[in-house]
Amino acid sequence: MAQSADVKVLPDIQVISDHMLMIQWSAAEGWNAPEIVPSGPIGLHPFSHVFHYAIECYEGMKAYKDSDGNIRMFRPEKNMERMNVSASRLCLPNFDGDELVKCIKELLRLDRDWIPQKKGYAMYLRPVMFSTTPWLGLTQCSEAMLFVLQSPVGPYFKSGYVPIKLHVDAKYIRAWPGGTGNVKFGGNYAPTVASQIAAAKAGCSQALYVYDKEEWVTEAGTMNMFFLIKSTSGTLQLFTPSLEDGCILPGITRLSVIELAKEWGTEVVEEPLPLKIVIDACEQDRCLEAFGTGTAAVLQPVGALQHNGKDYTLPEDGFAEGSFQMKMLAKLKEIQYGEIEHP
After folding, report:
1. Is the pTM of this model over 0.90?
2. pLDDT tens, per residue, the chain with 343 residues
3. DSSP string, 289-333
4. Could you give the C-alpha distances from 340 to 51, 293, 300, 312, 323, in angstroms and in order?
5. Backbone dihedral region of 215: left (phi > 0), alpha (psi from -120 to 50 degrees) or beta?
6. Residue 93 in contact with residue 143, Cβ under 8 Å?
7. Close Cβ partners of 333 (under 8 Å, ≥ 6 residues apart)
């Protein structure tokens, strides 16, 4: 039975909706016809590559109901583009992104009663593809499956917009040039649980990953990072690490923040970012705001950084009403829920 749309749902993605989308692929026949089936367990051969070599990639996206009850998706074509890039990197089959979006829309229409019609609530969508090749040796993928799963989610911030402290982690390297940091591959994330545990022991909420002797900033947890810094000449600049070295996932929310910031006339500095620039700005009271971006929280405020045992606290008005990030969060939500038109 379908869940009522006005039911209280949790933000931690524990409940699966009634149906899921399933598409099978083989090297001999290509993609089979897509199927929407009841949600439930799936059976795989014990030798399936996904179990032994982690050959899988996935996406995270959301669907919303606007005030008129219409179902809206936020830039799904970008998720499809990124998933195809991830698939290519892992030698999984590519697919027609436009056709998959059409299938996802059918899935959403079927389970529309699961989508809460309330601001701050959404249907989380998890497309995932993996190799089911039944061969214990490491070979090129000859069989694969693509699923799209759904879970209703509530507000990420139950008690308001709460800033977190980040623990700078130079011990565990999340990604490196030439690796897989720029694709959404499960193998990127499993090793970061150790960093999360270490951050919690240090009194922090999440890890900020850096690498090399310059301590290049990459991501924080599963988020892209932004720092609003006033230059020594007084110019306001929005810093975010660039994508050029392949260590950072090209987030859709990240892209949207950059585009909106430029529309607002904010100078965006997208380049390799050594941690020293951020630390120096903090010490000189020039780092005005810091926040992470991602599908789950949209924007996550950062109130402090911990580096080499020292805390660097950011101004409280950086995540207060009227701040840059609060204005950005409001604008993104207006777009996601169809309150304003935006390309």
Report:
1. yes
2. 455 545 454 445 689 999 999 999 999 999 999 999 999 999 999 999 999 999 999 999 999 999 999 999 999 999 999 999 999 999 999 999 999 999 999 999 999 999 999 988 999 999 999 999 999 999 999 999 999 999 999 887 765 688 999 999 999 999 999 999 999 999 999 999 999 999 999 999 999 999 999 999 999 999 999 999 999 999 999 999 999 999 999 999 999 999 999 999 999 999 999 999 999 999 999 999 999 999 988 999 999 999 999 999 999 999 889 999 999 999 999 999 999 987 6
3. EEEEEETTTEEEEEEEEEETTEEEEPPGGGGSTTSHHHHHHHHHH
4. 44, 21, 22, 37, 20
5. left
6. no
7. 119, 298, 339
Residues 240/256, Cβ–Cβ less than 8 Å: no
The set of long-range contacts for 228-233, using a CB threshold of 8 Å and a minimum separation of 24, is: 228/287, 228/288, 228/289, 228/290, 228/318, 228/324, 228/325, 229/277, 229/278, 229/281, 229/286, 229/287, 229/288, 230/281, 230/286, 230/288, 231/286, 232/286
Q: Which amino acid is at 339?
A: E
Give the pairing type, strands 236-240 and 267-270: parallel
